[in-house]
Structures are given as structure tokens and as C-alpha cells.
Amino acid sequence: MANKWVYMFSEGDMSMRNLLGGKGANLAEMTDIGLPVPQGFTVTTEACTQYYEDGRKINDEIMGQIMEGVKKMEEINGKEFGSLTNPLLVSVRSGARASMPGMMDTILNLGLNDDVVAAMIKGNPDPTFERFVYDSYRRFIQMFSDVVMEVGKKYFEQLIDKMKEEKGVQYDVELTAQDLKTLAEQFKAEYKNQLGTDFPSDPVEQMKLAVEAVFRSWDNPRANVYRRDNDIPYSWGTAVNVMPMVFGNLNNESGTGVAFTRDPATGENKLMGEFLINAQGEDVVAGVRTPMPIAQMEKEFPEAYAEFIKVCDTLENHYHDMQDMEFTVENKKLYMLQCRNGKRTAPAALKIACDLVDEGHKTEAEAVAMIDPRNLDTLLHPQFDAAALKAATPLGKGLGASPGAACGKCVFTADDAVEWKAKGERVVLVRLETSPEDITGMKAAEGILTVRGGMTSHAAVVARGMGTCCVSGCGDINMDEENKQFTLAGKTFKEGDYISIDGTTGNIYEGDIPTVDAQIAGEFGRVMAWADKFRKLKVRTNADTPADTAKAVELGAEGIGLCRTEHMFFGEDRIPKFRRMILSDTVEQREEALKAIGEFQKADFKAMYKTLDGMPMVVRFLDPPLHEFVPTEEDDIKALAADMGITVEDVKAKCDALHEFNPMMGHRGCRLAVTYPEIAKMQTRAVMEAAIEVAEETGKNIVPEIMIPLVGEEKELKFVKDVVVETADLVKSEKNSDITYQVGTMIEIPRAALTADQIAKHAEFFCFGTNDLTQMTFGFSRDDAGKFLDSYYETKIYENDPFAKLDQTGVGMLIQTAVEKGRSVRPELELGICGEHGGDPSSIEFCHKVGLDYVSCSPFRVPVARLAAAQAAIAEM
Predict the structure, then answer these.
(1) Among the four residues 61, 366, 596, 815, which has the most C-beta atoms within 10 Å?
(2) Counting beta carbons within 10 angstroms of the beta carbon of residue 870, is it exposed (0 to 12), middle (13 to 18) or buried (19 or more)?
(3) C-alpha dihedral, 277 to 278 to 283 to 285, nearest 10°
(4) Residue 293 — φ and ψ, nearest 5°?
């Protein structure tokens, strides 16, 4: 049999998500459980892959099956596609496997042309019906032009605004049938003006172009950005759903809405949503008109509302999760157009997970598995300082669409947001309404403020997904986009003026209100306790100050996996002494300078050990090249020359001599200790003395873990380890202590991974430094890769930034090799990871699979890592 490219809704179910996409699988499932779904068909994700393989064309076999689907749809619905007597109009929507809100394109009212419009009006003399037909037609021309033919929306919006101005009305619904007929003509003229051809009138051609457009949209820039941010592979493709139109814009007995079975912002178990009378679905989501709360629908359409409440219960009990639904009422009859597990904020995700366990919908393991770990980041985001907030008076109020607090300078375009952020400015993006092309600006902004749109508008949904603070639908703002300014409560805000917004309350304030770290709620502790019960990986933190350590411990860290000692040298009172050491000519001079630095290091280590309260700490010895520490400012150079009693020229000459052409692969890491063993001696003495003294003061069992970085050769490690052991044993005898300690290494050079069995003879632990390991494996500098990686994403050479998400194929193979070889020599070898990947969920899953003992990440990523580690263990179960 030929490939099956098209499935009627009655042929699928929710288990077919990979083939039918999320929307298609759920439409089939709703059909299967007897909900009122307009009966259509899904073109599969495999057809999308085939479209790209065929050079971005829909082949005849696929097109033939689409038209067979249309035929079956005609039979079910008793209407005919392209007919003048009883025309079938359809919607064409995308639907990928993973929900990608606002990222893909939709076309409504397809099948209309001048003849069909005239025939429809002739068959129904009601003037409101004539208005409806022209409204549907002008919407179709606008959407088709924008989505399928890529003529910008703005040309059509300008024509609508001009028409409303001429007619002296505020809303689209106030335009008459004649106005809309004129608009449809103007739209077609604009189409021809932009593209040089007439608007396509053949419904079959419209269908083919529309399906192609949905497939093409899988590869549009905003979809690619969203996929990269959300770990969605390019190879998945999108499905296309074709269904008969039901018309919320038919008359005042009709309407359209979006709803959630629980509040997506707080998780409260109550229906939340919005409804518009005499409108099509895009009006609610695009935020063109500000809708009414769903509860009001009960007054307007009591029967449809009662049925909708039943549908909500059915869906929650069927999917055992909070549902996000789109629906339309046509002549008081309810139709379901979509359902999916709803996107939610982090506090809502935790509350819903706990409630679903308490209600018997989920087990603890299922509850842990359903929370997106990246979402937890947002819980840990700032709120306004309470005292400062009390003193401030809100200038206005919108809808609190995505929680958190944000303050920054006003910018009015996505491009400006990106540009200003790159200059180090904090910005708030202010828009009439956001659209998917604003995604890069939304990512760059501290917060987003929109004039139009509700809690389910594009801005609200995308901001919640990104964990960015958002206030939407502040209709009191008088926007002047042209001049990059707006007025609110009599005050004009220009580009660059400070504004503060509260994404929880919706309040808007003038000026820059200070923020404070978030407080974590009770549900957080409960979910984390479940996560800790399931995970096998320990979670440590990367920290080099007592404050960072305390924060990480508060968030559940079980020790420090990476203490970067060089960060301790940059204090104003320390850096001159360190520079003196670097520029010394003799070992004696160096040792003299190191003595003072050693005291600082010891004090730092003591403070860290006290904060850790007996938990382990891996101390990485000096890693960066020495030239990073030398002075560059003239005043600093003069001060150093005076301090050392040498000339400024001498200082400059010595600094120049330290310059390297490729410092990342230069004189750094353990190579410094080979050249200057006295540095390793100083650091060993500082760690050992600190550990012994804190152990005596607190009675805690402290086992120092000393990590030698950038090792590539067994003899190199042995040389430095001998220096460390000699010094450590000397300190132990001086202090009369029997403390035990470990010496290990960082695996960050491919050669070290490949010869890990030799290295493990001298190392009691390995920690994978995946930032450098990635850099050296790919052979590109992590500081410069950003300049060319975009080209690699565009050409699909890479789908992700390998510094953000571990390359499991290449770098992962090196890690796996090192794990196997290392443990073949030393079965009890302790293994961890401390690169940026230690806080990335997919990388953590890999660490679990290859059998590491712990991951280490920045303090605020600790909860993310705890949850991701639990999910990896649950997935394996």
C-alpha cells in the first residue's frame, strides 16, 4: 500500500502524537470520546519531512490524499468545497508534536472567492449575514496574504485603521457590510500591488498553497529560535490540521474563546479564560480586542456554557492534567477546536502537580515528571522590594500575565531591545501587542508591557513560557509607536525612560523600583522532597564566595563541585599582591608575595567550609593564564611599579612578555604549577590549614578535595600531585592532624579522556569541565563562537549551542570513554561534572545515564538540576 499521509480525525487517537502532532492527536482523541469537534483530517508530520525531501514541494500522492480527505469531509458535513450553492469553508492550522504557541501559522475561512461570496449572500437576505460574509472574506485575504504569500500584515492593518478613522469608529465590529466589502477589494488590490498577480480564486490551489505554508513555517526564524530554546528537534516536522469552519463571527449569537481548566498563573483550581462575541479565534489570541472573562459567557450563552463546563471536566479527568482549550460557539452551539496540556508558570506548575497528587490524578513520580525543570528558574526570579513598592503609586494597571518584577528603560521595538541589552542596559519592551516576530526582543527584555491583549494573548503565553515578567492589555496607555513614546495617566514615557512593571498584579510604576530575590513557597519544598526521593545523582554548586555558597545550600546543594580559586584574587586589596607575585623574577620573591595571598585564600576557604557545615568542596587550583591578572590601566601600572621598586617600562615589558597568541591553550592550569610549583604549594597549604582548623572548631569531618586543572598527560598530573601531597602531609604533621584528603583532576582536554585509565592511577576523582572539553573537542573558542554559530543554526549544521546543551555524540563519547577507562583502574573513582552543562536538563539526563556521581551548577540552577536528576531516574524506571 502507498504511504498513508492523511488521517481523518476518526482514525487517530492521542497515542499517535508523533505522527499526527499534538493538535491532531488531541482532536482525534476528543472525537473518540464523543466531544463536539468539527470533523476534518490531519496531514502527518511524515508528509512535512517528505515536503522538505522533495525540495519544498507537496508531491502528487500527498495532494491526492488531501483532496480525498476533503471529499470525506464534504460527505460528513453535507457541504461542498468550492460549491456556489452550499460551500464548505475550512481552517488550515499547524500542529507540531510539542506545543509551540504562536510559533506556527494559521489560515481561516479558506475556500472563499468572489463567486462563493456572492452566492452565499444571495442565498441569505439577512443584512447581518452579508456583513459576516464580507468580514470572513477580508480576514481570509489578509491571513492568506500574510501567512501564505508573506505580504506583511501591516499593509492590511493600515487599510483597516484608515477605514475606521474615515467612518469614525473604534472597533472592527462597528464597520458595516459595505465597509468590509470595500476593504476586501482594497486588500485584493494591495495583494496585486505587492505581488504583481491576482489573489488566487481556485479553492484547490488555495488549499495546496496553505498546506505548503504551514510546512514552510516549520523552518521560519521564529520557529527555529523557539525550537532551539525548548529542545525540539528540527527533524520532527509539523502536521497540518484541516477542519470545517465554524463561525464565531456569524452574528451576536456566536463567539469564540480560549480557556484553561485551572489558572495558568497561580494553579488555582478554577476555570479561567476569555470570550469574545461575534469574533474569530485569532481575535482573542492576537489581542486585537480586549475580551471579557469566561464567566460572562454564562449570561450570553447559558446552554453552550453549561456544555462547556461538562467538557472541561471530561477533559481534565481524561488527560489528568490542566487543559488549555480553544472553542467557538456558532448560533449558540458549542464546538471544540483544540485542547492541550496548558502552559503554566512555575508556581502554578508546582501547585497543580501537588493538587493532582492530592486529587488522585497522579502519583508522586508522575507529578515530578510533569514539571519542566527550566520553568523553576522563574520561581527564583526577583520580586519588588516590599518597602519600595509600598512607597510607590501605580500609574496604571494591566493584566498580570506572567509573574515576577521587572524594571528597565522603555524600548519600543524588538530590535532595539536586543541592541540595548547588548550594550548592558536593562530594558522593558513596550508594544501595542506582540507578535511572533518579536521573540528575540522579548528574550532580551527584563519585562514586556502591551496595550492590547488578554491573559491568553501571544505576549502572555510566550512570556510565561520564557519566565519573563509581562503585563498585558493596559488599554489606558496612549501609544505613539512612530515617535517611540507613550502616555499613561498624563505622564509621557520616551525611549530610555525607566519604568517598573509587576507581572503578578499587573501594576505599572514610573521609575526604577528595586527588586529582591524570590521567596520559595511550600509546594516547592514538597515537590523538591519528592524529587530528592527519586534522584540518584547528587547536586553540588559552582561557588567561590560564602554568599553564593549559602544561597546554593538554601536551594538544596549538597556541597561545592567547583570552587574557582582565581576568583578570590580579584579583590582590591588582593590583586596588587598577586600581580607582584606574577612579575617577580626569583622563586624567593614569588614565595614572599604568595605568603600574603595564602592568608587571604585560607580565610576564604575557612568561611566556605563553615558555610558548608561538613559538606564536600572541590577546590580547583589556579586555572587562567597569568596575563589575565596583569594591569592594563596606566594608573595601575604606575602603582605596581612603585610597589615593586621598578620602572613603569619594566612593568610593561614583563606584562607584554606574558602575552599569548592563544591563551585558552597556553600557559594555564596545571602548566602554571609545573613552571611555578610554589603556587600549588601556597594553595595546598591554604586549603589544608583551613580544613584542619574548621574541623577542629566545628567537630565536622572535612575531607578536602583538591583538583588539578587542564591535565593532558599522566606524568604531568603525577608531578603536580607530588608537590600537593608533600605540602599537604607537611601541614598535617605541623598541625598534628590525621585529616584525610583527596587529589583529583579536571577532565577537559580530549587526550585526558582518551587516556583516563593512565590518569586514574594518580587521581581519586574526575570532574568533567565540559566548557573547555567542548571548546577543545569542537576546536572553537567559546568566547568567539557566538560570532558564527548563527550561520550554523540557519544552515541546520547545529540545532543547539553546544556550550549550553551537551553534545552527547562527540563530547559525550569522550565522557563515556573516560568514565569506563577511569573506573576500570579505580572502581571507586568519584565522577562529577562542573561545566555550564551541569544545570541543563538534557545534559543532566546524560550524566545520569553514564553513571556520574554528581552534577554541579550555578546556585540558582540547583533546583533545576535536582528536578532534572529525578526525572532522569524516573524515566529509567
Answers:
(1) 815
(2) buried
(3) 40
(4) -65, 150
Let me know the angle formed at the C-alpha of 541 by 538 and 546, rounded to the nearest 5 degrees.
Answer: 135
CA distances (Å), origin 253, targets 128, 250, 287, 304, 678: 11, 8, 21, 11, 85
Residue of 381, 458, 627, 762 with catalytic role: 458
Kindly report the backbone phi and psi dihedral angles of residue 656, in degrees, each rounded to the nearest multiple of 5, phi listed first: -60, -35
Measuring CA to CA, which residue among 291, 328, 287, 293 is closest to residue 461?
Answer: 287
Which pLDDT belongs to residue 29?
98
Binned at pLDDT 50, 70 and 90, residue 1 comes out as low
**Which of 863, 741, 875, 765 is closest to 819 using CA atoms?**
765
Nearest to 370 by CA among 382, 383, 356: 356
- Whether 834 is catalytic: yes
Dihedral angle sign, alpha carbons of residues 122, 127, 129, 135: positive
372-403: pLDDT as tens digits: 998 786 677 778 887 888 889 999 998 888 87
Of 326, 26, 74, give the one whose Cα is nearest residue 12. Answer: 26
CA distances from 407 to 71, 354, 424, 471, 507 (A): 55, 32, 14, 12, 12
Taking the C-alpha atoms of residue 181 and residue 131, their distance in angstroms, rounded to an integer, is 8
Q: What is the pLDDT of residue 519?
A: 63
737: cell is 592532624
Percent pLDDT > 90 in the chain is 70
Collect all residues with Cβ–Cβ distance below 8 Å to 419 and sequence separation of at least 6. none
Beta-ladder partners of 499 = 408, 510
Render pLDDT for 332-354 as a digit per residue (tens, 0 to 9).
999 999 999 998 888 899 999 99
Separation of alpha carbons 847 and 833, rounded Å: 8
Among the options 339, 410, 834, 857, which is catalytic? 834
How would you classify the pairing of strands 705-708 and 742-747?
A: parallel
Percent of the chain predicted with pLDDT > 70: 97
Measure Cα distances from 479 to 240, 289, 402, 431, 445 in Å.
Answer: 37, 15, 22, 8, 19
The amino acid occupying position 472 is S
* Alpha carbon distance 28, 8 (integer Å): 8
Closest by alpha carbon to 552, among 540, 563, 561, 537?
Answer: 540
What residues form DSSP beta bridges with 410?
A: 428
DSSP codes, 67-81: HHHHHHHHHHHT-EE
> Phi and psi (nearest 5°) for 586?
-120, 160
Q: Which residues on adjacent β-strands are paired with residue 617? A: 560
Assess whether 659 carries a catalytic annotation.
no
β-pair partners for 765: 830
Query: Looking at the predicted structure, is the pLDDT value of residue 64 above 90?
Result: yes
Question: How many Å from the N-terminal Cα to the C-terminal Cα in the chain?
Answer: 38
pLDDT of res. 765: 98
Query: How far apart are the C-alpha atoms of 90 and 256, rounded to whole Å?
Result: 16
Q: How confident is the model at residue 824 (pLDDT cuts 50, 70, 90)?
A: very high
What does R_g of the chain's alpha carbons equal in angstroms?
Answer: 32
Q: Which residue is associated with the grid cell 580559586?
A: 565
Q: Are 469 and 450 in contact (CB under 8 A)?
A: no
CB atoms within 10 A of CB 600: 17
Counting Cβ atoms within 10 Å, is residue 485 exposed (0-12), middle (13-18) or buried (19+)?
middle
Q: Does the pLDDT value for residue 102 go beyond 60?
A: no
**Residues 6+ positions from 828 with CB-CB distance below 8 Å:** none
Do 284 and 460 contact (CB within 8 A), yes or no? no
Helix (H, G, I), strand (E, B) or coil at 494: strand
Q: Measuring CA to CA, how many Å separate 684 from each of 351, 487, 674, 707, 724? A: 47, 62, 14, 10, 6
Residues 6+ apart with CB under 8 A from 629: 566, 569, 575, 578, 579, 582
Location of C-alpha cell 496612549: 478
Please name the amino acid found at residue 207.
M
